[in-house]
Amino acid sequence: MVLAQLGGTITRAIQQMSNATIIDEKVLNECLNEINRALLNADVQFQLVRNMQNNIKRIVNIDDLAAGHNKRRIIQQAIFNELCNMLDPGKPSFTPKKGKTSVIMFVGLQGSGKTTTCTKYAYYHQKKGWKPALVCADTFRAGAFDQLKQNATKAKIPFYGSYTESDPVKIAVEGVDTFKKENCDLIIVDTSGRHKQEAALFEEMRQVSEATKPDLIVFVMDSSIGQAAFDQAQAFKQSVPVGAVIVTKMDGHAKGGGALSAVAATKSPVIFIGTGEHMDEFEVFDVKPFVSRLLGMGDWSGFMDKIHEVVPKDQQPELLQKLSEGNFTLRIMYEQFQNILKMGPIGQGQEKESQAKIKRYMTMMDSMTNEELDSSNPKIMNDSRIMRIARGSGRQVREVMEMLEEYKRLAKIWSKMKGLKIPTRGDMNMRSRNMNAQHMSRVLPPQMLKQIGGMGGLQNLMKQMGSGKDMMGMFGGGES
Ligand SMILES: Nc1nc2c(ncn2[C@@H]2O[C@H](COP(=O)(O)OP(=O)(O)OP(=O)(O)O)[C@@H](O)[C@H]2O)c(=O)[nH]1
User: Fold this and answer.
1) Could you tell me the CA-to-CA distances from 397 to 133, 355, 378, 386, 388 in Å, in that order?
2) Cβ distance 35 to 78 under 8 Å?
């Protein structure tokens, strides 16, 4: 995903700026210009980028920066907030309720992935115990009904459509009525994405919308359409009251910035993103984790980095010993995953998705040999091993590679623990006091403190990890 590049460029720009000895207006401008270029390259609309720059300049007080405060954090925070604001229209979209009938109409240009997305949306809810149903109101494209029928059959979702009826309004109304009678709680209406004339397409959408009175209209947009995103989204919004956006094909080479433009144009939030052609390649979209990821601040990563919190106390010394030797193996990662899953279902949304991901990763690791699991050298994972693991676990090569990337990322974080002197009992007594970063900094070996990024880095790390108490747990402080 090119989005990762965008995140990288932004992070580098901030890094470069914070390396400068004196931060003045000029240095800040250079940094913001670099960020602007990155955003424009990622297809974010020009006006949005401009507004963002102005807002950041208003928020960031150059004198504060010059006074030696943590410049990087101040600017990163301002950028984070601005990107979140861009993606957050300020009001949530209509959220259907299980057991209560809702009609959701999908609109979008042909090829945007609308039909696929309708099925993914239905399937996502079906898995959670809803009773969804699909209505094909696209009578323009021959084959549209067949496509929907095929998808729906595969997912065992009831569907409605017609090979002979040419009036989309009639089909939509009949379909919605039928499924209301059948007590379906999520009636999804797929509409046409093309017409001989654009005006006719929008007119048809208006009529379907008026006749079926949907609770929510979802605009589906292909993330690879680039700078055209804003205008396209706006055109739809002007015709029907779009209330939410789903951005598709985020797995490809799309730059993703179009998502920001679509939100701005429709004043509606992105609710899901499509990340592949398969039915389950569909993710709930949360603004903050998305932007964190964009800026390399971690969301899923944040979740993962907390794994120490779930290490049972009796295993902590052993784990710590291994880590202090610099051996973060795939087996250790596997064991930590088991600990996380033992905690049972936690929370909703992002965290739930993370758990599903962990399960996928574990299935892949189940297809690994002992040698692979116990090696701390990622280089042994050559192509043929990766392919074997993918075959063995029924997952795609790309997924195995993603899992290995995650392992490498974690190994890098944990490698900071290498050479760590395990605190003595005397140090441990400090736990009884209210542990804070100051205390921690005295307990830690100076070399390690430096690696973490000094006091500032330590404070951040502690915040990320929850509390000083947990942190001590991680460093071998058992309850005894
Ligand atoms: N890689 C990837 N492909 C997707 C995604 N969503 C949809 N597609 C593919 O995009 C193509 C177009 O999707 P459709 O669902 O047929 O498009 P549509 O917008 O419904 O088109 P009409 O029914 O003609 O309006 C298909 O090949 C889908 O498999 C996604 O998130 N990622």
Assistant:
1) 33, 20, 16, 7, 9
2) no
Pocket test for ligand 1, best of 112, 116, 236 (most atoms within 8 A of CB): 116
Q: Which residues line ligand 1 (CB under 6 A)?
A: 108, 110-116, 138, 141, 144, 147, 193, 248-249, 251-252, 274-277
Q: How many whole angstroms separate alpha carbon 329 and alpha carbon 341?
A: 19
As a whole number of angstroms, the distance between CA 242 and CA 240 comes to 6
Give the separation between CA 90 and CA 201, rounded to whole angstroms.
Answer: 29
d(CA 378, CA 38): 31
Containing H/E element for 122? helix 114-127
Give the 3-state secondary structure of residue 379: helix
ipTM of the complex in this document: 0.96
Q: What is 420-454 written as a DSSP string?
A: PPPPPHHHHGGGGS---HHHHHHHS-HHHHHHHTH
pLDDT, tens only, 99-120: 999 999 999 998 899 999 999 9
On whether the CB atoms of residues 414 and 430 are closer than 8 A, the answer is no
Predicted structure pTM score: 0.63
Ligand 1 nearest atom to the CA of residue 112, by list position: 19
Instruction: Answer positive or negative: Cα dihedral of 469, 288, 223, 103.
Output: positive
- pLDDT in the model for residue 237: 94
Domains assigned to the chain:
2-87 (1.20.120.140), 102-294 (3.40.50.300), 299-419 (1.10.260.30), 425-480 (no CATH)
Which atom belonging to ligand 1 lies closest to the Cα atom of 120? 6
CA distance 171 to 68: 66
What residue's CA is closest to ligand 1, atom 4? Answer: 277
